[in-house]
Specification:
With 547 residues, the protein is α/β, with parallel strands linked by helices. 42% of the residues lie in helices and 20% in strands. It has 16 helices and 18 strands. The strands form four sheets. Strands 1, 2, 3, 4, 5 and 6 form a six-stranded antiparallel beta sheet that branches. The longest helix has 67 residues, at 121-187. 32% of the residues are buried.
C-alpha cells in the first residue's frame, strides 16, 4: 500500500536551493520539492510512496536500509565521497557525489526525516583541480630548489678555478712587496721622509693583496674547494668561545643572546669554519639592524624524518644539530632570499660589501652535508636555519685556541725561522710563483733546486746525487699532479719530506674535503713567515731524515 503525502507546509521547500525529500521511519518517500525533480530526473508523482533506495545506486540498495536506520538515529551532515554506498543515482542511471544533511521532524503522521541533497560534482572537480595545481606548484618549487642548488654548484666550480689562478698572483704580489719593504727599511737613512712615503704606498699594495687573499679564501669556501681540518666538537662550545668576538663585531646597540641546548649532540666540523659562519652571519645581522636590535643564537638536537627530508631538497633523514641565528632587522624579500647565497650578490651600496659573506656560509654548511635555509620577510627580521649532521663520537674539550680558528690566527708569531742549510726542491709551473718561492727560501739559508713540472723534477732527482731533504710542490700542475710526483719522488729518495702548496688542493684531499693523514699543506697565497714556518715544521717533524 502506498503511503500518503504528509500534511506539512511545503512553501519553504520550493525556495531552498537544495533537493529535499521527506522520508518516513520505514524509508518511504512522502515529500519531494521541485529541486529533486531537476536533480534526479524523477517527477514527484514517481517518487512519492516509493522507497528512498530508488535514489541509491543499485549495488548499494541491499545494505542501505540498515544504514538508513542508523542515519535517522544519528542525523548529521554526510559527504558523499564517491563510494557506492554514499553516491546518489538519477533516474537515467547516472551517479553523482552528494552532500546530504538529515533533519528528523515530528509530525502528526510520525517522524519524518528530511534529507537535503546537494550535488558536489563541481566542488569535487574544483578540489581535484586545486590538488593538481598544488602538486604542480610543489614540483615547480622542488625544481626551483634543485636548479638553485645546481646554479650554486656551478658558481662554486667557477669560483674555485678563479681562486686557484688568482692565489698564485697574490702570493707573488705579497712576497715581492715584502722584499721591497725590507730593502727600503734597510736603505732609507738620511732621506727618511721620502722613503717613509714610499713605505706607506707599499703597505697599501700589501693591504690590497691581503684583502684579495681574503676574497679568494671565501670563494674557495663557497665552492667547497678549501682545505678543512674537522674534529669532533660541540657547537655550544664554539659559540661560547666566539661569543666575545661576536660582541665586538656587533654595535653596542645590539644585544647578543645565546640559548644553548643542554646535552647537545657532537658534530664533525672545522671549528675555524664554524666561527666563520657565526661571524659572517653576525655581520649580516649588524648591517640589517643599523638602529640596534637583538641577535639570538640558539642550538638544539633535531631528528629529520623521511617526510620532512622529502620536502627539503638536499636534506636526508637522520640526526642533526640545529644552529639558528635570528635578528629583528630589516629582513629580506623573496627575490633577495633566492639570490642571497650567490657569490658577489649584495644589496649593500657599492664598496660596503663583497657579497661573499653568505656565500661562504652556504659553502661551509653544504660541505658538511648540512642544510641551510633563510626565513625572512621585509621589516620582519631574518632567521638563518642550519642543520649539521650529528656524530656518535664524543666531542673533544674545546679549551684553548683551535687549529685554523681566528683565536689561533691572532696568536701566531711574526718571527721568520732561519734555514739550516737543507736542500729543497721546489716544483711550480707558474714562473713568477716559482721564482718568488726560491727567493724566500734562499734568503733564509736554504739551498733551492727548481723545476717547472713533475717530470722535470723526477729527472733532476734521478740525475743528481745531491741530498734533497724537502720536496715543496704545487698540487695542480700540467703533465703530473703534485701527489703523483711526491709518490714517485719518495720512492727515488726514501725519507724525503713533502710539503704541498696550493690554492686548490682537492687532488690531495679525501672525498670529504679533509687532508689525508700525514699530508702537510700550505695554502696560497702565503707570506714569507707562513712559508718559512711551515717548511721548518716539516723538516723538524719526527721521522727518519731524508738522504
Amino acid at each position: 500500500m502506498l503511503a500518503q503525502p504528509t500534511e506539512l507546509p511545503v512553501g519553504w521547500l520550493e525556495v531552498t536551493p537544495d533537493a529535499i525529500v521527506g522520508v518516513t521511519s520505514d524509508g518511504v518517500i512522502v515529500l519531494a520539492n521541485a529541486r529533486v525533480e531537476a536533480l534526479f530526473g524523477y517527477s514527484r508523482e514517481e517518487l512519492i510512496g516509493r522507497p528512498v533506495e530508488i535514489l541509491v545506486p543499485e549495488d548499494a540498495r541491499p545494505l542501505h536500509p540498515a544504514k538508513r536506520a542508523r542515519y535517522v538515529v544519528e542525523p548529521r551532515p554526510r559527504l558523499m565521497d564517491g563510494s557506492s554506498e554514499l553516491t546518489a543515482r538519477r533516474k537515467d542511471g547516472t551517479q553523482f557525489p552528494a552532500e546530504i544533511s538529515l533533519s528528523p521532524i515530528a509530525t502528526e503522521n510520525g517522524t519524518i526525516t528530511f534529507a537535503a541533497i546537494r550535488d558536489v560534482t563541481e566542488r569535487r572537480e574544483l578540489q581535484a583541480e586545486r590538488e593538481v595545481l598544488r602538486a604542480q606548484a610543489d614540483r615547480e618549487q622542488a625544481e626551483n630548489r634543485s636548479h638553485q642548488s645546481q646554479r650554486l654548484e656551478s658558481l662554486g666550480q667557477l669560483a674555485g678555478g678563479v681562486a686557484h689562478d688568482f692565489n698564485n698572483l697574490l702570493s707573488v704580489i705579497l712576497n715581492y712587496a715584502s722584499f721591497v719593504e725590507e730593502e727600503i727599511k734597510a736603505v732609507r737613512g738620511a732621506d727618511q721622509g721620502r722613503w717613509d712615503a714610499a713605505l706607506k704606498d707599499l703597505q697599501q699594495i700589501q693591504g690590497a693583496a691581503e684583502r684579495g687573499a681574503g676574497l679568494t679564501h671565501q670563494l674557495l669556501t663557497f665552492g667547497r674547494r678549501e682545505v678543512v681540518r674537522p674534529r669532533v666538537l660541540s657547537l655550544n662550545a664554539v659559540v661560547s668561545n666566539v661569543k666575545q668576538l661576536l660582541q665586538r663585531t656587533l654595535d653596542e646597540q645590539i644585544d647578543l643572546v645565546a640559548v644553548l641546548a643542554p646535552d647537545l649532540w657532537p658534530v664533525m666540523a672545522d671549528p675555524g669554519q664554524i666561527e666563520q659562519v657565526l661571524v659572517n652571519l653576525a655581520v649580516n645581522a649588524r648591517d640589517a639592524m643599523p638602529n640596534g636590535g637583538v641577535l639570538r643564537i640558539d642550538t638544539a638536537n633535531v631528528v629529520v624524518d623521511e617526510a620532512y627530508a622529502a620536502n627539503h631538497h638536499g636534506l636526508g633523514p637522520g640526526q642533526y644539530v640545529r644552529l639558528r641565528l635570528s635578528d629583528n632587522g630589516s629582513g629580506m624579500s623573496q627575490d633577495v632570499i633566492e639570490h642571497a647565497f650567490e657569490p658577489f650578490f649584495t644589496t649593500k651600496p657599492k664598496g660596503e660589501g663583497t657579497g661573499l659573506g653568505l656565500a661562504t656560509v652556504y659553502g661551509i654548511i653544504m660541505r658538511m652535508d648540512g642544510f641551510v635555509r633563510i626565513m625572512s620577510r621585509p621589516s620582519e627580521g631574518s632567521t638563518f636555519f642550519m642543520l649539521i649532521p650529528a656524530t656518535v663520537i664524543p666531542a673533544d674539550d674545546l679549551g684553548g685556541a683551535e687549529p685554523g680558528s681566528q683565536a689561533q690566527a691572532q696568536a701566531q708569531s711574526s718571527g721568520r725561522p732561519s734555514g739550516g742549510g737543507e736542500t729543497i726542491l721546489v716544483i711550480e709551473d707558474e714562473d713568477a710563483m716559482r721564482e718568488v718561492t726560491r727567493r724566500v727560501l734562499t734568503r733564509k739559508g736554504y739551498r733551492v733546486l727548481t723545476a717547472a713540472d713533475g717530470v722535470t723534477a723526477l729527472e733532476l732527482l734521478s740525475t743528481t746525487e745531491e741530498p734533497v731533504q724537502l720536496l715543496l710542490t704545487d698540487v695542480v700542475m700540467p703533465r703530473m699532479l703534485g701527489k703523483d710526483v711526491a709518490d714517485e719522488a719518495s720512492a727515488l729518495r726514501p725519507g724525503l719530506r713533502v710539503l704541498y702548496m696550493s690554492g686548490y688542493a682537492q687532488p690531495v684531499l679525501t672525498s670529504q674535503g679533509t687532508l689525508q693523514p700525514g699530508v702537510a699543506l700550505i695554502e696560497k697565497p702565503f707570506a714569507q713567515t707562513e712559508l718559512l714556518t711551515m717548511v721548518r715544521d716539516v723538516l723538524d717533524a719526527p721521522g727518519p731524515p731524508a738522504n
